[in-house]
Amino acid sequence: MKLNYYTDTDSLYIDLSEKESVETIEIALGINLDLDEAGEAVGIDIDNASKKLNLKELTINQLPSKVVVAHEEQ
Q: Rounded distance, CA 5 to CA 13, Å?
């Protein structure tokens, strides 16, 4: 799973799977769910993310995997 924040559009994309999206459905205003060909969720796109979420802190509890932090050079 990957979290990708795009400052230029203020959107957060959550990659749930590496599978290709073939359909997108809006599940709430500005929140879209991407589905693969089997109808399984592969990603979530959140428009105006800074207005809907607290992006200043991310807490991760007990994930059974390695956490990688990537910083964009400015």
A: 6
Q: Which two tokens stand for residue 69?
A: 């932090």
Q: Please name the helix (run of DSSP H) or strand (run of DSSP E) that holds residue 46, with its range, or none.
A: strand 41-46
Amino acid (one-letter) located at 14: I
Measured distance CA(28)–CA(55) in Å, rounded: 19
Q: Are 35 and 21 in contact (CB under 8 A)?
A: yes
> How many Å apart are CA 44 and CA 33, to the nearest integer?
5
Distance of CA 38 to the CA centre of its chain: 20
Q: What is the pLDDT of residues 8-44, one digit of tens each?
A: 999 999 999 999 999 999 999 999 999 999 999 999 9
- Token pair 């990688």 is at which residue? 68
